[in-house]
Design goal:
Layout: E1 2-10, H1 11-14, H2 17-49, H3 55-80, H4 91-96, E2 98-102, H5 111-127, H6 129-141, H7 147-152, E3 154-163, H8 173-176, H9 189-199, H10 201-226, H11 235-270, H12 278-286, H13 289-304, H14 311-319, H15 323-329, H16 334-344, H17 349-381, H18 388-401, H19 403-433
Antiparallel strand pairs: 1-3, 2-3
Helix pairs in contact: 2-6, 3-5, 9-19, 10-11, 10-12, 10-18, 10-19, 11-12, 11-13, 11-15, 11-19, 14-17, 15-16, 17-18, 17-19
Length: 434
C-alpha cells in the first residue's frame, strides 16, 4: 500500500525553474485524465437519454456539461477532495501526484475561490490566448502558478508516495504454500491458483459472481437504451457495429473490474482477514474506480490499434498486465501502477504475453460460445423477428444462465494473475536487496 503526502511548498517558490516545467507536465496529464472521465460521464448521459431526447436537447446538454458540470467537478474536488485535512485534488491530479492548495496557508481552498478558479481555467481554455500565455510563462520562468492561480490565491503542490503495509504475511496455514518463494515465479501459477480457489471459494468465486451479476445488470439497462433495433436495410450493419462497440467496452471494463475485485479477495485470503463480506470486497475495488476507468480507456485504445500494428499494442498490454493489482493492492496512482507493472514484467515479457493470449482465448471462447448458443436459441424461436435489441436480450439471457461457470473461469484466470503479481513482486524485492 502507498499513501500520498502533499508537500508544503509549491514548486514555483522552492524548487526552481525545472519544477515549474515538471508541474506543468503533470498538470497537463492530469487535465487529460479529468477530461477523459468527464467525457465518459457525458457519453454515458447521452447514451442513456438519446432514445428520449429531442434532437436540439443534445447540444444544450453538452453546453450545460461544459459550463456547469465540469467547473463543479473541479471546484468540489479542490474544496473537499484529497488527503484528509489537506489540499484537494481531482481524480486526474491524484493519479499524477499533485494537489491544489491555498498559496498562503497551504490548506484547502474555500468553495467560492475553488469555483472561481475552475471558471478561470475554463475561460483561459476557451479564449486560448491566456492558456498559451500560461504555458509560455511556465516554461520560461519556472513559476508553477497559472494566472487563475494568482487571481484566486491558489497554487499547485506536489504529492509524494510513501510505501507502507506491502509485506503482510499469510496467517491461514492452508494458503501459505501458495505464496511461498519460488525459484521460477512464472511456473506452476495455475495449480497454485486452483489451490487458492479451493481454499476459499466464498471470497474468490463469490466476489467474482457478485461483480459479474452487477455488470450484467448494467448491461441489461444499457442494451435497450443505446442499441437501436433495426431489422433490415443498409443501416443494420451499423446497428451491429454499434452493438459490438458496446460489447467490447463492457467486456474490457468487466475484465478490469473482475481483476480488481479478485485482487482484493486474494489479499483478504492471503492475510487471513476474518469476516470480510463479498460486498466489502467489491467496495474495496470500487475505491479506485477513477484509476480503473482511465486504465480501461487506455486498454481499449491499445486494442483498437491492434489491426494496424498488432505486435506493439500486444507487447505494451503484456507489459501493463499487472496495472490493476498495482492500483488496488498497493494503492498506487495510475502512472505509478504503469511504472510498477512495466518494471515487474521486464524480465518475463514474452512468457507473460503468452499467458495473456491464452487467458484471452480461454475467456473469449467461453463467452462467445455462450453468446452463440443464446442467439441461436432465440433465432430458432423467432427467426423473422430477430432484431439487434432482441439479439442483445438473447445474449444477456445466455450470460445470466452461464453466470456460475463463467464466473468460475474468470475467478480461476484472475487468481492466477494475482498469484503471478505476488511472485514477481517478491522476486523484484529480492533482486533489489542483493
Amino acid at each position: 500500500m502507498s499513501v500520498h503526502v502533499v508537500d508544503g511548498a509549491s514548486g514555483g517558490r522552492d524548487a526552481g525553474a525545472t519544477t515549474g516545467v515538471h508541474l506543468l507536465t503533470r498538470r497537463l496529464v492530469a487535465l487529460v485524465l479529468d477530461v477523459v472521465l468527464l467525457g465518459l460521464g457525458l457519453l454515458a448521459t447521452l447514451a442513456l437519454g438519446v432514445s428520449v431526447m429531442e434532437p436540439g436537447i443534445v447540444e444544450w446538454l453538452v453546453l450545460a456539461w461544459v459550463a456547469l458540470v465540469a467547473p463543479l467537478y473541479f471546484a468540489l474536488y479542490h474544496a473537499y477532495g484529497g488527503p484528509e485535512r489537506g489540499p484537494g485534488w481531482t481524480p486526474g491530479q491524484r493519479e499524477v501526484g499533485i494537489a491544489v492548495q491555498d498559496a498562503r496557508t497551504g490548506g484547502r481552498l474555500p468553495v467560492g475561490r475553488a469555483l472561481a478558479r475552475a471558471y478561470g481555467g475554463l475561460a483561459a481554455t476557451a479564449l486560448v490566448v491566456p492558456l498559451l500565455a500560461d504555458v509560455v510563462s511556465l516554461f520560461a520562468s519556472g513559476e508553477a502558478r497559472a494566472w487563475h492561480d494568482r487571481v484566486t490565491g491558489s497554487e499547485v503542490a506536489r504529492a509524494r508516495e510513501v510505501e507502507s503495509g506491502t509485506s503482510a504475511v499469510p496467517t491461514d496455514a492452508s494458503v501459505v504454500e501458495v505464496f511461498e518463494p519460488s525459484a521460477e515465479p512464472s511456473r506452476a501459477v495455475m495449480p497454485r491458483a486452483r489451490r487458492l480457489l479451493s481454499a476459499d471459494r466464498r471470497a474468490l468465486l463469490g466476489s467474482t459472481l457478485l461483480l459479474y451479476l452487477l455488470l450484467l445488470g448494467v448491461a441489461g439497462v444499457l442494451v435497450p437504451l443505446v442499441v437501436s433495433d433495426w431489422s433490415g436495410g443498409p443501416d443494420e450493419i451499423w446497428a451491429w457495429a454499434e452493438w459490438l462497440v458496446y460489447a467490447v467496452l463492457l467486456f474490457t471494463s468487466g475484465v478490469y473490474w473482475a481483476q480488481a475485485t479478485l485482487a482484493c479477495a486474494v489479499d483478504a485470503v492471503r492475510t487471513g482477514e476474518p469476516g470480510v463480506t463479498l460486498v466489502e470486497i467489491v467496495r474495496r475495488a470500487a475505491r479506485r474506480a477513477n484509476a480503473l476507468c482511465v486504465a480501461v480507456v487506455l486498454l481499449v485504445v491499445l486494442l483498437a490499434l491492434s489491426p494496424w500494428t498488432l505486435f506493439v499494442p500486444l507487447f505494451v498490454v503484456a507489459r501493463l498486465s499487472l496495472v490493476v493489482p498495482a492500483i488496488v493492492l498497493e494503492e498506487r496512482t495510475l502512472l505509478g501502477a504503469i511504472g510498477r507493472s512495466w518494471t515487474l514484467t521486464r524480465a518475463r515479457t514474452f512468457s507473460i504475453l503468452g499467458r495473456m493470449i491464452v487467458s484471452i482465448v480461454a475467456l473469449g471462447t467461453a463467452i462467445w460460445i455462450v453468446i452463440f448458443v443464446g442467439i441461436s436459441l432465440v433465432w430458432a424461436v423467432a427467426p423473422d423477428d430477430l432484431g439487434v435489441s432482441t439479439a442483445g436480450v438473447a445474449v444477456l439471457v445466455a450470460l445470466a444462465v452461464a453466470a456460475v461457470p463463467l464466473s468460475a473461469l474468470v475467478a480461476l484466470v484472475g487468481t492466477g494473475w494475482c498469484v503471478l503479481f505476488y511472485d514477481l513482486r517478491r522476486t523484484s524485492a529480492a533482486d533489489e536487496a542483493r
